[in-house]
Protein backbone atom coordinates (compact mmCIF):
# COMPACT_ATOMS: atom_id res chain seq x y z
CA UNK A 1 0.00 0.00 0.00
CA UNK A 2 1.34 3.46 -0.90
CA UNK A 3 2.01 6.12 1.73
CA UNK A 4 -0.88 8.22 0.41
CA UNK A 5 -3.24 5.25 0.53
CA UNK A 6 -2.13 4.41 4.08
CA UNK A 7 -2.76 7.99 5.21
CA UNK A 8 -6.22 7.93 3.60
CA UNK A 9 -6.92 4.54 5.20
CA UNK A 10 -5.91 5.84 8.65
CA UNK A 11 -8.00 8.97 8.20
CA UNK A 12 -10.99 6.90 7.06
CA UNK A 13 -10.66 4.59 10.09
CA UNK A 14 -10.39 7.60 12.37
CA UNK A 15 -13.44 9.18 10.76
CA UNK A 16 -15.44 5.98 11.11
CA UNK A 17 -14.59 5.69 14.80
CA UNK A 18 -15.50 9.33 15.35
CA UNK A 19 -18.84 8.81 13.59
CA UNK A 20 -19.62 5.77 15.74
CA UNK A 21 -18.77 7.62 18.96
CA UNK A 22 -20.94 10.56 17.96
CA UNK A 23 -23.83 8.27 17.07
CA UNK A 24 -23.81 6.45 20.41
CA UNK A 25 -22.68 9.37 22.58
CA UNK A 26 -26.03 10.89 23.57
CA UNK A 27 -27.87 7.59 24.28
CA UNK A 28 -24.80 6.29 26.13
CA UNK A 29 -24.67 9.47 28.23
CA UNK A 30 -28.35 9.07 29.11
CA UNK A 31 -27.86 5.40 30.01
CA UNK A 32 -24.83 6.13 32.21
CA UNK A 33 -26.53 9.03 33.97
CA UNK A 34 -29.74 7.02 34.50
CA UNK A 35 -27.84 3.98 35.76
CA UNK A 36 -26.08 6.08 38.40
CA UNK A 37 -29.27 8.03 39.25
CA UNK A 38 -31.40 4.93 39.90
CA UNK A 39 -28.66 2.95 41.66
CA UNK A 40 -28.90 2.82 45.48
CA UNK A 41 -27.19 5.77 47.16
CA UNK A 42 -24.00 4.58 48.90
CA UNK A 43 -24.10 4.91 52.68
CA UNK A 44 -21.16 7.34 52.72
CA UNK A 45 -22.49 9.56 49.90
CA UNK A 46 -25.18 12.22 50.32
CA UNK A 47 -28.23 12.37 48.06
CA UNK A 48 -26.89 15.61 46.53
CA UNK A 49 -23.57 13.90 45.93
CA UNK A 50 -25.36 10.97 44.28
CA UNK A 51 -27.16 13.35 41.92
CA UNK A 52 -23.86 15.09 41.18
CA UNK A 53 -22.31 11.73 40.27
CA UNK A 54 -25.14 11.08 37.79
CA UNK A 55 -24.64 14.52 36.24
CA UNK A 56 -20.88 13.98 36.08
CA UNK A 57 -21.29 10.54 34.45
CA UNK A 58 -23.49 11.89 31.67
CA UNK A 59 -21.36 14.97 30.93
CA UNK A 60 -18.18 12.88 31.10
CA UNK A 61 -19.49 10.59 28.34
CA UNK A 62 -20.44 13.62 26.22
CA UNK A 63 -16.94 15.01 26.69
CA UNK A 64 -15.33 11.74 25.65
CA UNK A 65 -17.51 11.03 22.62
CA UNK A 66 -18.04 14.64 21.47
CA UNK A 67 -21.54 13.57 20.43
CA UNK A 68 -22.53 17.22 20.73
CA UNK A 69 -20.18 20.23 20.68
CA UNK A 70 -18.11 20.42 23.86
CA UNK A 71 -19.27 23.98 24.48
CA UNK A 72 -22.92 22.86 24.44
CA UNK A 73 -22.14 19.89 26.70
CA UNK A 74 -20.62 22.36 29.17
CA UNK A 75 -23.63 24.68 28.94
CA UNK A 76 -25.90 21.71 29.70
CA UNK A 77 -24.37 21.58 33.18
CA UNK A 78 -26.44 24.63 34.18
CA UNK A 79 -30.00 23.47 33.35
CA UNK A 80 -29.34 19.84 34.27
CA UNK A 81 -27.86 20.75 37.67
CA UNK A 82 -30.76 23.09 38.50
CA UNK A 83 -33.62 20.94 37.14
CA UNK A 84 -32.30 17.80 38.85
CA UNK A 85 -32.01 19.62 42.17
CA UNK A 86 -28.27 19.00 42.28
CA UNK A 87 -27.38 22.69 42.66
CA UNK A 88 -29.06 26.10 42.66
CA UNK A 89 -28.66 28.50 39.75
CA UNK A 90 -25.99 30.60 41.44
CA UNK A 91 -23.79 27.57 42.11
CA UNK A 92 -24.33 26.25 38.59
CA UNK A 93 -23.20 29.58 37.12
CA UNK A 94 -20.16 30.03 39.39
CA UNK A 95 -17.75 28.58 36.85
CA UNK A 96 -18.63 31.18 34.25
CA UNK A 97 -17.63 34.00 36.60
CA UNK A 98 -14.40 32.27 37.67
CA UNK A 99 -11.07 34.04 37.30
CA UNK A 100 -9.59 31.70 34.64
CA UNK A 101 -12.43 32.47 32.22
CA UNK A 102 -11.55 36.18 32.23
CA UNK A 103 -7.81 35.47 32.20
CA UNK A 104 -8.38 33.44 29.02
CA UNK A 105 -10.40 36.29 27.45
CA UNK A 106 -7.63 38.82 28.16
CA UNK A 107 -4.91 36.47 26.96
CA UNK A 108 -6.73 35.76 23.68
CA UNK A 109 -7.09 39.51 23.05
CA UNK A 110 -3.38 40.07 23.72
CA UNK A 111 -2.56 37.22 21.32
CA UNK A 112 -4.82 38.71 18.64
CA UNK A 113 -2.83 41.94 18.84
CA UNK A 114 0.43 40.01 18.39
CA UNK A 115 -0.95 38.34 15.26
CA UNK A 116 -2.66 41.41 13.76
CA UNK A 117 0.42 43.62 14.13
CA UNK A 118 2.53 40.73 12.73
CA UNK A 119 4.79 40.87 15.77
CA UNK A 120 4.46 37.09 16.26
CA UNK A 121 5.34 36.53 12.58
CA UNK A 122 8.39 38.78 12.85
CA UNK A 123 9.63 36.89 15.92
CA UNK A 124 9.22 33.64 13.98
CA UNK A 125 11.35 34.80 11.04
CA UNK A 126 14.00 36.39 13.27
CA UNK A 127 14.54 33.15 15.18
CA UNK A 128 14.58 31.01 12.01
CA UNK A 129 17.05 33.42 10.38
CA UNK A 130 19.35 33.33 13.40
CA UNK A 131 19.51 29.53 13.64
CA UNK A 132 20.20 28.67 10.01
CA UNK A 133 18.50 26.35 7.57
CA UNK A 134 19.96 22.89 8.18
CA UNK A 135 17.09 20.49 9.06
CA UNK A 136 18.16 20.09 12.69
CA UNK A 137 18.60 23.85 13.03
CA UNK A 138 15.19 24.51 11.49
CA UNK A 139 13.46 22.17 13.92
CA UNK A 140 15.43 23.71 16.80
CA UNK A 141 14.29 27.12 15.55
CA UNK A 142 10.66 25.95 15.55
CA UNK A 143 11.17 24.72 19.13
CA UNK A 144 12.58 28.09 20.22
CA UNK A 145 9.72 29.92 18.50
CA UNK A 146 7.26 27.73 20.41
CA UNK A 147 9.03 28.69 23.65
CA UNK A 148 8.84 32.41 22.78
CA UNK A 149 5.21 32.25 21.62
CA UNK A 150 4.16 30.43 24.80
CA UNK A 151 4.60 33.78 26.56
CA UNK A 152 2.78 35.71 23.83
CA UNK A 153 -0.08 33.48 22.64
CA UNK A 154 -2.37 31.74 25.17
CA UNK A 155 -3.58 28.99 22.86
CA UNK A 156 -1.63 26.00 21.58
CA UNK A 157 -4.01 25.92 18.60
CA UNK A 158 -3.28 29.56 17.75
CA UNK A 159 0.47 28.99 18.03
CA UNK A 160 0.23 26.04 15.65
CA UNK A 161 -1.91 28.06 13.23
CA UNK A 162 0.79 30.76 13.21
CA UNK A 163 3.63 28.35 12.44
CA UNK A 164 2.02 25.64 10.29
CA UNK A 165 2.04 27.69 7.04
CA UNK A 166 5.73 28.47 7.55
CA UNK A 167 6.51 24.79 8.13
CA UNK A 168 4.62 23.72 5.01
CA UNK A 169 6.43 26.42 3.03
CA UNK A 170 9.78 25.08 4.28
CA UNK A 171 8.82 21.57 3.16
CA UNK A 172 7.85 22.89 -0.27
CA UNK A 173 11.17 24.71 -0.65
CA UNK A 174 13.04 21.55 0.23
CA UNK A 175 10.91 19.67 -2.30
CA UNK A 176 10.18 16.80 0.09
CA UNK A 177 7.58 14.15 -0.69
CA UNK A 178 4.11 14.28 0.85
CA UNK A 179 5.37 11.91 3.50
CA UNK A 180 9.07 11.93 4.32
CA UNK A 181 11.25 11.67 7.44
CA UNK A 182 11.90 15.41 7.46
CA UNK A 183 8.19 16.25 7.05
CA UNK A 184 7.28 13.94 9.94
CA UNK A 185 10.15 15.33 12.04
CA UNK A 186 9.21 18.98 11.42
CA UNK A 187 5.46 18.59 11.98
CA UNK A 188 5.86 16.50 15.13
CA UNK A 189 8.37 19.05 16.46
CA UNK A 190 5.83 21.79 15.79
CA UNK A 191 2.95 20.21 17.70
CA UNK A 192 4.81 18.36 20.46
CA UNK A 193 7.20 21.09 21.62
CA UNK A 194 4.26 23.49 21.42
CA UNK A 195 2.44 21.28 23.93
CA UNK A 196 5.32 20.59 26.32
CA UNK A 197 6.36 24.21 26.82
CA UNK A 198 2.73 25.11 27.48
CA UNK A 199 2.95 23.39 30.86
CA UNK A 200 5.52 25.94 32.04
CA UNK A 201 3.72 29.25 31.42
CA UNK A 202 0.49 30.04 33.26
CA UNK A 203 -1.18 31.72 30.30
CA UNK A 204 0.10 29.35 27.60
CA UNK A 205 -2.77 26.86 27.69
CA UNK A 206 -6.25 26.79 29.23
CA UNK A 207 -5.73 23.88 31.70
CA UNK A 208 -3.13 25.97 33.57
CA UNK A 209 -5.48 28.71 34.88
CA UNK A 210 -8.17 26.06 35.40
CA UNK A 211 -5.69 24.20 37.64
CA UNK A 212 -4.96 27.41 39.55
CA UNK A 213 -8.68 27.98 40.09
CA UNK A 214 -9.31 24.49 41.52
CA UNK A 215 -6.21 24.68 43.72
CA UNK A 216 -7.37 28.05 45.07
CA UNK A 217 -10.77 26.59 45.94
CA UNK A 218 -9.17 23.63 47.72
CA UNK A 219 -6.24 25.32 49.49
CA UNK A 220 -7.12 29.00 49.64
CA UNK A 221 -3.85 29.89 47.86
CA UNK A 222 -3.91 31.35 44.35
CA UNK A 223 -0.74 30.48 42.46
CA UNK A 224 0.70 33.60 40.81
CA UNK A 225 2.19 33.91 37.34
CA UNK A 226 5.70 34.05 38.82
CA UNK A 227 5.08 31.04 41.10
CA UNK A 228 3.86 28.98 38.14
CA UNK A 229 7.03 29.90 36.26
CA UNK A 230 9.15 28.96 39.27
CA UNK A 231 7.50 25.56 39.66
CA UNK A 232 6.64 24.68 36.08
CA UNK A 233 8.99 26.35 33.64
CA UNK A 234 12.22 24.41 34.46
CA UNK A 235 10.68 20.93 33.90
CA UNK A 236 8.70 22.17 30.89
CA UNK A 237 11.82 23.68 29.31
CA UNK A 238 13.83 20.50 29.97
CA UNK A 239 11.05 18.35 28.48
CA UNK A 240 10.72 20.63 25.45
CA UNK A 241 14.39 20.27 24.52
CA UNK A 242 14.29 16.55 25.32
CA UNK A 243 11.26 16.08 23.06
CA UNK A 244 13.04 17.95 20.24
CA UNK A 245 16.14 15.79 20.73
CA UNK A 246 14.06 12.60 20.84
CA UNK A 247 12.33 13.42 17.55
CA UNK A 248 15.72 14.03 15.88
CA UNK A 249 16.89 10.59 17.05
CA UNK A 250 13.73 8.61 16.29
CA UNK A 251 12.93 10.36 12.98
CA UNK A 252 16.14 11.87 11.56
CA UNK A 253 15.76 13.92 8.32
CA UNK A 254 16.69 12.12 5.12
CA UNK A 255 18.96 14.77 3.58
CA UNK A 256 21.58 17.38 4.43
CA UNK A 257 21.40 19.71 1.39
CA UNK A 258 19.00 22.29 0.01
CA UNK A 259 19.35 24.63 2.97
CA UNK A 260 20.26 27.67 0.89
CA UNK A 261 16.82 28.04 -0.71
CA UNK A 262 15.12 27.85 2.69
CA UNK A 263 17.49 30.40 4.18
CA UNK A 264 16.93 32.72 1.23
CA UNK A 265 13.14 32.47 1.54
CA UNK A 266 13.24 33.19 5.30
CA UNK A 267 15.53 36.20 4.76
CA UNK A 268 13.30 37.44 1.93
CA UNK A 269 10.14 37.17 4.04
CA UNK A 270 11.78 38.98 6.96
CA UNK A 271 13.12 41.72 4.69
CA UNK A 272 9.70 42.18 3.07
CA UNK A 273 8.25 43.03 6.49
CA UNK A 274 10.51 46.09 6.66
CA UNK A 275 11.21 47.88 9.91
CA UNK A 276 9.01 47.35 12.94
CA UNK A 277 5.83 49.37 12.62
CA UNK A 278 4.50 51.71 15.28
CA UNK A 279 1.70 49.21 15.99
CA UNK A 280 4.26 46.44 16.56
CA UNK A 281 6.22 48.60 18.96
CA UNK A 282 3.08 49.51 20.92
CA UNK A 283 1.99 45.87 21.12
CA UNK A 284 5.48 44.84 22.25
CA UNK A 285 5.68 47.61 24.89
CA UNK A 286 2.27 46.68 26.25
CA UNK A 287 3.08 42.99 26.39
CA UNK A 288 6.39 43.66 28.17
CA UNK A 289 4.51 45.80 30.69
CA UNK A 290 1.94 43.05 31.33
CA UNK A 291 4.67 40.44 31.67
CA UNK A 292 6.63 42.58 34.14
CA UNK A 293 3.52 43.11 36.26
CA UNK A 294 2.86 39.37 36.19
CA UNK A 295 6.43 38.64 37.24
CA UNK A 296 6.31 41.17 40.11
CA UNK A 297 2.88 40.17 41.37
CA UNK A 298 4.33 39.30 44.76
CA UNK A 299 5.51 42.89 45.17
CA UNK A 300 2.60 44.78 43.60
CA UNK A 301 -0.21 42.54 44.83
CA UNK A 302 -1.93 42.89 41.45
CA UNK A 303 -3.96 39.85 40.41
CA UNK A 304 -2.88 38.02 37.22
CA UNK A 305 -6.34 38.29 35.69
CA UNK A 306 -6.68 42.00 36.52
CA UNK A 307 -3.31 42.77 34.89
CA UNK A 308 -4.22 40.73 31.80
CA UNK A 309 -7.60 42.46 31.37
CA UNK A 310 -6.00 45.86 31.91
CA UNK A 311 -3.48 45.15 29.14
CA UNK A 312 -6.23 43.88 26.84
CA UNK A 313 -8.31 47.02 27.38
CA UNK A 314 -5.36 49.31 26.62
CA UNK A 315 -5.15 47.74 23.16
CA UNK A 316 -8.40 49.49 22.22
CA UNK A 317 -7.50 53.02 23.34
CA UNK A 318 -7.60 55.76 20.67
CA UNK A 319 -4.16 56.53 19.18
CA UNK A 320 -2.35 54.00 21.40
CA UNK A 321 -4.46 50.92 20.60
CA UNK A 322 -3.74 48.55 17.72
CA UNK A 323 -7.10 46.80 17.19
CA UNK A 324 -10.87 47.15 17.28
CA UNK A 325 -13.64 44.90 18.59
CA UNK A 326 -14.11 43.06 15.29
CA UNK A 327 -10.47 41.90 15.54
CA UNK A 328 -10.94 40.73 19.13
CA UNK A 329 -14.21 39.00 18.32
CA UNK A 330 -12.45 36.89 15.72
CA UNK A 331 -9.47 36.17 17.97
CA UNK A 332 -11.27 35.03 21.13
CA UNK A 333 -12.27 31.36 21.16
CA UNK A 334 -15.69 31.62 22.76
CA UNK A 335 -16.04 27.83 22.61
CA UNK A 336 -13.03 27.42 24.89
CA UNK A 337 -14.52 29.92 27.36
CA UNK A 338 -17.80 28.01 27.52
CA UNK A 339 -16.01 24.68 27.98
CA UNK A 340 -13.88 26.13 30.77
CA UNK A 341 -16.84 27.83 32.48
CA UNK A 342 -19.10 24.77 32.37
CA UNK A 343 -16.29 22.46 33.39
CA UNK A 344 -15.36 24.59 36.39
CA UNK A 345 -19.03 24.69 37.43
CA UNK A 346 -19.25 20.90 37.18
CA UNK A 347 -16.08 20.51 39.25
CA UNK A 348 -17.44 22.97 41.79
CA UNK A 349 -20.62 20.94 42.13
CA UNK A 350 -18.65 17.73 42.62
CA UNK A 351 -16.59 19.34 45.37
CA UNK A 352 -19.47 21.05 47.19
CA UNK A 353 -21.76 18.00 47.21
CA UNK A 354 -19.03 15.64 48.43
CA UNK A 355 -19.17 13.58 45.23
CA UNK A 356 -15.52 14.29 44.42
CA UNK A 357 -14.43 13.12 47.89
CA UNK A 358 -16.47 9.93 47.60
CA UNK A 359 -15.09 9.14 44.14
CA UNK A 360 -11.53 9.93 45.26
CA UNK A 361 -11.86 7.64 48.29
CA UNK A 362 -13.11 4.83 46.06
CA UNK A 363 -10.23 5.23 43.60
CA UNK A 364 -7.67 5.66 46.37
CA UNK A 365 -8.59 2.38 48.08
CA UNK A 366 -9.05 0.52 44.79
CA UNK A 367 -5.45 1.39 43.91
CA UNK A 368 -4.21 0.19 47.29
CA UNK A 369 -2.60 3.54 48.14
CA UNK A 370 -3.58 3.51 51.81
CA UNK A 371 -0.42 4.11 53.84
CA UNK A 372 1.65 5.00 50.76
CA UNK A 373 4.10 7.91 50.94
CA UNK A 374 3.23 11.26 49.39
CA UNK A 375 5.78 10.70 46.62
CA UNK A 376 4.26 7.32 45.69
CA UNK A 377 0.77 8.83 45.61
CA UNK A 378 1.98 11.70 43.41
CA UNK A 379 3.81 9.31 41.07
CA UNK A 380 0.81 6.98 40.66
CA UNK A 381 -1.60 9.85 40.06
CA UNK A 382 0.73 11.47 37.49
CA UNK A 383 1.04 8.17 35.61
CA UNK A 384 -2.72 7.58 35.57
CA UNK A 385 -3.44 11.14 34.46
CA UNK A 386 -0.85 10.88 31.69
CA UNK A 387 -2.40 7.83 30.10
CA UNK A 388 -5.94 9.19 30.51
CA UNK A 389 -4.98 11.33 27.51
CA UNK A 390 -5.67 8.27 25.36
CA UNK A 391 -9.42 8.54 25.97
CA UNK A 392 -9.77 12.33 26.00
CA UNK A 393 -10.07 14.73 23.08
CA UNK A 394 -8.91 18.13 24.31
CA UNK A 395 -7.17 19.08 27.51
CA UNK A 396 -9.66 21.63 28.87
CA UNK A 397 -12.44 19.08 29.36
CA UNK A 398 -9.91 16.67 30.81
CA UNK A 399 -8.71 19.24 33.36
CA UNK A 400 -12.19 20.22 34.50
CA UNK A 401 -13.26 16.57 34.76
CA UNK A 402 -10.28 15.14 36.64
CA UNK A 403 -8.88 17.91 38.85
CA UNK A 404 -11.76 17.96 41.38
CA UNK A 405 -11.28 14.21 41.90
CA UNK A 406 -7.49 14.60 42.20
CA UNK A 407 -7.88 17.36 44.80
CA UNK A 408 -10.28 15.23 46.79
CA UNK A 409 -7.80 12.35 46.58
CA UNK A 410 -5.14 14.63 48.10
CA UNK A 411 -7.37 15.04 51.16
CA UNK A 412 -7.87 11.28 51.40
CA UNK A 413 -4.14 10.59 51.11
CA UNK A 414 -3.13 13.39 53.47
CA UNK A 415 -1.07 15.02 50.69
CA UNK A 416 -0.74 18.75 50.15
CA UNK A 417 -3.44 19.45 47.49
CA UNK A 418 -1.09 21.81 45.63
CA UNK A 419 1.60 19.12 45.45
CA UNK A 420 -0.82 16.65 43.86
CA UNK A 421 -2.96 18.88 41.64
CA UNK A 422 -0.15 21.06 40.26
CA UNK A 423 1.86 18.30 38.53
CA UNK A 424 -1.39 16.63 37.42
CA UNK A 425 -2.55 19.90 35.85
CA UNK A 426 0.81 20.36 34.13
CA UNK A 427 0.72 16.82 32.75
CA UNK A 428 -2.83 17.40 31.47
CA UNK A 429 -1.97 20.69 29.75
CA UNK A 430 1.51 19.87 28.48
CA UNK A 431 1.67 16.21 27.50
CA UNK A 432 -1.24 15.21 25.22
CA UNK A 433 1.31 13.51 22.95
CA UNK A 434 0.07 9.94 22.68
CA UNK A 435 -2.44 10.16 19.82
CA UNK A 436 -3.19 12.61 17.02
CA UNK A 437 -6.72 13.26 18.26
CA UNK A 438 -5.63 14.41 21.75
CA UNK A 439 -5.52 18.11 20.78
CA UNK A 440 -6.58 20.34 17.91
CA UNK A 441 -2.93 21.26 17.07
CA UNK A 442 -2.13 17.58 16.56
CA UNK A 443 -5.26 17.15 14.46
CA UNK A 444 -4.16 20.15 12.34
CA UNK A 445 -0.73 18.71 11.56
CA UNK A 446 -2.21 15.23 11.00
CA UNK A 447 -4.64 16.80 8.56
CA UNK A 448 -1.77 17.82 6.28
CA UNK A 449 -1.67 14.20 5.09
CA UNK A 450 2.03 13.87 5.89
CA UNK A 451 1.63 11.94 9.16
CA UNK A 452 0.21 8.56 10.15
CA UNK A 453 -1.56 7.64 13.35
CA UNK A 454 1.44 5.57 14.48
CA UNK A 455 3.88 8.49 14.24
CA UNK A 456 2.52 10.09 17.41
CA UNK A 457 2.94 7.22 19.91
CA UNK A 458 6.33 6.37 18.38
CA UNK A 459 7.65 9.54 20.00
CA UNK A 460 4.85 10.29 22.45
CA UNK A 461 5.08 7.17 24.62
CA UNK A 462 8.76 7.73 25.42
CA UNK A 463 8.29 11.48 25.93
CA UNK A 464 5.30 10.96 28.23
CA UNK A 465 7.04 8.34 30.37
CA UNK A 466 10.04 10.63 30.76
CA UNK A 467 7.68 13.48 31.64
CA UNK A 468 6.11 11.40 34.43
CA UNK A 469 9.61 10.70 35.78
CA UNK A 470 10.67 14.37 35.51
CA UNK A 471 7.62 15.67 37.36
CA UNK A 472 7.92 13.01 40.06
CA UNK A 473 11.57 14.04 40.50
CA UNK A 474 10.50 17.69 40.70
CA UNK A 475 8.11 16.74 43.52
CA UNK A 476 10.94 14.96 45.34
CA UNK A 477 13.62 17.61 44.76
CA UNK A 478 12.92 20.99 43.19
CA UNK A 479 9.43 21.49 44.58
CA UNK A 480 10.40 19.91 47.89
CA UNK A 481 13.21 22.46 48.29
CA UNK A 482 10.70 25.21 47.56
CA UNK A 483 8.47 23.88 50.34
CA UNK A 484 5.67 22.69 48.04
CA UNK A 485 5.74 18.99 48.98
User: Looking at the structure, what is the overall shape?
Assistant: globular
Helicity level: over 70%
Low-confidence stretches: 1-11
- Mean residue pLDDT: 83
Q: Topology as H/E string?
A: HHHHHHHHHHHHHHHHHHHHHHHHH
- Tell me about the largest β-sheet: none
Rg (CA only): 23 Å
Topology:
Elements: H1 3-38, H2 47-65, H3 70-75, H4 77-83, H5 89-93, H6 99-116, H7 119-131, H8 135-152, H9 156-174, H10 181-198, H11 207-219, H12 225-250, H13 259-272, H14 278-295, H15 297-300, H16 304-314, H17 325-331, H18 334-353, H19 355-366, H20 374-387, H21 395-413, H22 417-430, H23 440-446, H24 455-476, H25 478-481
Helix pairs in contact: 1-2, 2-18, 6-11, 6-16, 6-17, 6-18, 7-8, 7-13, 8-10, 8-12, 9-10, 9-23, 10-12, 10-23, 11-21, 11-22, 12-24, 14-16, 18-21, 19-21, 20-22, 20-24, 21-22
Write a short abstract of this structure.
The protein is mainly alpha-helical and 485 residues long.
What does this structure look like?
The chain has a domain of 233 residues. The protein has 25 helices and no strands. The longest helix has 36 residues. The N and C termini lie far apart (53 Å).
Amino acid sequence: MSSHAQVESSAHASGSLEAILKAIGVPLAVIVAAAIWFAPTPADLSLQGHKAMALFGGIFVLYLTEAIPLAIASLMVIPLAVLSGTANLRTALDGFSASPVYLIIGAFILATAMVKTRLAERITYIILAKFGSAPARITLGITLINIALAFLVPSSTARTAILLPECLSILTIFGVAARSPFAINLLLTLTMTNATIGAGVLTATVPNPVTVEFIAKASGHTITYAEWLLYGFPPALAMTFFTWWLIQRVLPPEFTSGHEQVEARISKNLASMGRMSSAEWRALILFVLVTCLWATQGLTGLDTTVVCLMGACLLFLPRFGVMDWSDANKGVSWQVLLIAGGGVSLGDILLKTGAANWLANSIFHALGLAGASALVVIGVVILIVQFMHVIFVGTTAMATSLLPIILAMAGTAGVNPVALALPAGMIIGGYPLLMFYNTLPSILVYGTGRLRVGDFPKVGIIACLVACLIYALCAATWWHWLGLV
